[in-house]
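User: I'm putting together notes for a lab meeting next week and I want to include a structural view of one of the chains we've been expressing. I don't have a solved structure, so I'd like a prediction I can at least talk through. The sequence is below, exactly as it appears in our construct file.
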Amino acid sequence: MRLSTSSTAFNGLGWMLFALSMLGIVGANGQGYHVVEHQLVSRQLPDLSNISTCGLNCLVQSITGSGCDLTNTTCSCASSQLGQLAASCLIANCTMQDSLDLAKLQARQCNLPHESQTTKMLAILVTVYVTALIAIGLRLIAKSFAKIWSTDDALIVAAIVIAIAPFSLVIIMATMGFGTHLYDLQSGQLTKILQLLYAAEIVYVFVLLFAKLSLVTFYFRIFTVPRFRMAAYSLIAFLVLGQVIIGFLTIFSCHPIELFWNKDIHTGGCLDINQLAYANSALAILQDLIILALPIAMLPGLQMNKNKKISVAVIFLLGSVGFISTIIRLQVLAVFGNSIDPTWDYVPVVWWTTIELGVVIVCACLPMIRNLVEKWFPNFKLFKWSSPKPSKDSVGSSSVGTDDKSYKMGRYQKFGRSTSPPQFSDNYVRDHIGGPPSKTDEISPTKYRDMYAYGGSKPKVLEDPMSPPQPYDLSWRSTNPYGISGENPLSTLSQLLLLLLLPSVGRCCEQQLCEQQQKHTCSTCGNSTPQVPMPAALPQCLPQEWTTWTTDDGVDASTRAYWMRQANLALPNPCPFAAFGAVVVNHTAGGLGELVCTGANNNQGSGNPTLHGEMVAINNCSAIFTDPQGRYNMTPADALLAFSNLTLYTNAESCPMCASAIRWAGFKEYVYGTSIDALVDMGWGQITVSSKEIFNQSSSLSSETGFLGGVLTNETDGFFSWQFRPNATCPQGCSRAASGRCAPA
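Assistant: Thanks for the context. Below is the predicted structure for the 745-residue chain, given as structure tokens.
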């Protein structure tokens, strides 16, 4: 910076050499200068009375290296070498005003243009800041609907607030002449511009730090893999350390500090500004590369189809725009330390720096903006992930149509009133991490069990065993991913109940089990009505095209089967005696849905007879929702409201206690596998009051709960068939122990 400021005055001053270098004219004493002035006047050359003695001395010393003929004014005006030579002399001996006087004289004699980049610079500056402000505004709107705030929100807001300082400083600099040539400045303005530039450079370093930290802390809410989190923490340390060092070097780049803007001080010194600028840009490029690479490296391991992974990658790669702007800024830095016209040459550096900062801020807001766009424009395909339609022979994922009537009913009618977890999760990936793998992959056991210990209040994550046992036989998935038998579809979806909405008594209809005797009835809930005979043929027992049969909320059979398997996988091992597992799912999150919490029966482990799987899941959800350090940090009132948008899956029909709890919680849907009647047939002691009867008796409650039973019973039955049948086969991964019970192998 010191070199660039002091050398600004001398580009093209060689035209003066012929007046200063005539033989015998310039002497060692002051008389020689009077002779020079006399000769210049006689030749009608410009008045040099405003040029200081120091300035004229420097011109005399630089004549030998000019390379131009003494009488060739054209060559002298075009000579940059002469300007550099004269600048070196002025740095050591003259004042900034001497440089400005000579620059103005040069402009007049060489007819230099009076250009301005101020308008262009201000247009870019205002556009970038307003765009960043709009992006943050949309982000905050999305988060206000979610009613949840996180560290990355605070960091990005801090970045845009602090950015007011450098943006304002550049605007003030523009009013003083920044964006014009040095020779168009007023006396004293250069010092003020350099002071403001010094302050803006320091603040910019820390604005960029806050913006990048917001991106990295956002990743914590997407990826929960321990190794990723360690890498992210390391990246945060690298960002903080790097920017603090750059900030320190910028602040103390000159000693004394005033030397940065006051070149009339001829003691002390400055760092090589060129090297400092290149180091800053190189560090920024390295940081951008790591920030981009970190999430992209995680995508291959996510359970997504190819289209989803590409969509996620595109969102993250939009950050490469900031990376590109950093590279371009690096190119324009070539003039940073060598410019002889800083108020003109530094303008591209400023606007590319501004663009870089704006892009980082906008990219940090894109995932939340995406959620808002999907909310406001549900049919806007740019932000949607295309997924293959599920069939009998492939694993797909369904998305809840935002135009579906029941979807709208399941949400609060006024936009933004919902407190359901999909709105809490404002990231682009998290809602789909728990999705199914491609149709060629097997679904492995859950890597982490319940977020909370069964029945406990402390967060607990269980590590994987070295060779995790399969809780049931997975071999059938290679040919039948949904577990749907082509020969006997009822083995999987027996006792399929149409969606039952309460308390609208009189509009629910049950399709009874299509037994071998093919007995069917259709009765009005809670009312006695004449039985309506159903068709006798077995293929007509199920709705037409039963493989794509969906409930009113658009969740298809394959998605139901997937989450029922997750309820099985919520068990602590493949064959606990009380193998009752449950999961709570948010289907409004789109795609396959979002796992909120899980639970498994823990009567024996806790000594609490009420800790059935459903009760544990509800308790865990409440603990997770209201955890002050957790993802949601909800108030108790908000936690109670959140259940109205969630679905509870349990691998066995709920007992009267649990069914009542489900209704009191106000779940949107309740889905079970093995029925109470089937459990009794297997030898289980049960209170033989069906959950359907409990639901019928709860019609006075204000909430509505969907009801669906008999899902994936060909898998869920196996968890309950061995306990009271000594000859029954144990679930895969288990074998009969000496006690007669099945135990993990």
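A couple of points you could mention at the meeting. Confidence is low (pLDDT under 50) at residues 1-44, 383-550. The chain has 28 helices and nine strands.

User: Perfect, that's what I needed.
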